[in-house]
Amino acid sequence: MVERSDRAPLLDWEEIPSAGKPGGDRLSSPSNSRALSAPGFGWSTGGAAGSHTDGGAPPATSAPVSAAGADGSLPPDKVEHLSESGPREAPLKDGMVAWEEKDQIVSVFVVTFNTRSGNMLEWCLPKDMDLDGVEFKAIASGSHRVSTDFIYFRKGSYFGLACFANMAVESTEERGARMKSVGILSPSYTLLYRYMSFLEHQVRLQLQSPGHYSPLEAFYEDKRALLPPGGDAVVTALPLNVWGATINHSMHPEMKITHPAGCMSQFIRFFGEQIMVLWKLALLRKRILIFSPPPVGVVCYRVYCCCCLANISIPGVGMAVPEFRPFFYVNVADISALENELSYVACTTEKIFEEKKELYDVYVDNQNVKTYRDGLKPLLRLSAADKEKYRKLTEQRQMLLYSQEENGDCVSSEEDLFILFFLEQNNRIFQTLSEVAASPDPTVTQESVRAMGLDPHGDRLFLLHLLEIYGYDTLLVSEQLCCS
């Protein structure tokens, strides 16, 4: 039986021309916040666009750590004005007008399911593009059970977005169903969301009129990338001097994925307090693999949300740690690539991955977060500080929703609140560690651990992992921090 994807109708949105930008018909993210945008990622595998961990664009905030409480939460007045950028807003917008990502579509393709041969690459431009294996990314394993879906993925040094559709037909040869996917590749994922509506329309057209490629040809000619001679990825990260001090919707070019309204709230409701476990694992740069049956699109949102947990905006922190890379959807063809990754977050619909324990540190099966590594198992238990932080996060969400309903606050969003909440918590931890390291007695005590918003007993192992991974191994740990 074909099930309808749970992303409809929330995902519907209109491509709105940018106002006031040179160049005419550029597309901007919708004003209703359905273009997801997170600071601090912008990773492109060509190396030109790094994350905050390797000197690329930092998160879109450098708010003082002291603005948060000891648990990393914000006072009510901060919650209601998360997007006020004050006097910095004008120069920021000026910088963003001067800096604008260009269309960088390196390939457009159509994938189909053949009853005799399985998934097949039906058509593509350019003709000499290496698209080996893309047919198994654009149509995910198990997709025959849903009518529509979309998939973010990585292909070599590029990122892809494909829209899938499944249509019933009266054809014995096609066994009653026609399945196709239309997708694109780019050196960066930051602008792929712009073409979601186009791809959804084109896959419906391909199902109804197979072989009608002229719109795709025109699209490729208009949007194709002008890559350097070496074929390296272009710069897609926002320059450092453009970032402002607080989060604002106009400040989010770094990562944008079309998503349902309330994506973050859905993530919070889905995982509940387990978000705090994922937060620690993301901050420790562990390899996180999320399993879920189709549809894939909603699971790609979870990959994105996991990435939002690990933002740090303190200069110099995290320079030596592995980059927390979003791989989005992966299948068995990606096993060799994942074997070489030190840190990533990805999703899959293929249950066989659970048996490949050497490929991941943490396996997330729907809401069940588990690990086969004995050293990480204690991290799956919530500490008292974790529960308190989750309570504060939930409380701030309720305050924001109340403000939006009562006062018509359309500026602040749950995405801003979510990103800033964990950013402030991360900054508080590393700010405190830096102060301890610079003190005459570089010893981590119960008081300093509490200042980080952590539990001196329940978070001891997490702290030891953190000190090792982030290079604070010269710090002494007080014997008072005993195991619980």
Overview of the structural elements:
With 484 residues, this protein is α/β, with parallel strands linked by helices. The protein is 29% helix and 17% strand. It has 13 helices and 16 strands. It has a five-stranded antiparallel beta sheet with strand order 5-4-8-7-6. A five-stranded mixed beta sheet has the order 11-12-10-13-14, covered by helices on one side. A hairpin with a 2-residue loop joins β13 and β14. α10 packs across α11 (414-438). It is elongated and about 75 Å long. The model is unreliable at 1-100 and 230-256 (pLDDT under 50).
Trace the largest sheet across and list its strands: 5-4-8-7-6
What is the overall number of helices?
13
Helix content: 25-40%
Largest sheet: 5 strands, antiparallel
State the distance separating the first and last CA atoms: 50 Å
Low-confidence stretches: 1-100, 230-256
User: Could you tell me the number of beta strands?
Assistant: 16
Structural class based on helices, strands and sheet pairing: alpha/beta
Average pLDDT: 76
Q: Could you spell the SSE succession in H and E letters? A: EEEHHEEHEEEHHEHHEHEHEEEHHEHHE
Strand content: 15-25%
* Radius of gyration using CA atoms only: 23 Å
Bulk shape = elongated
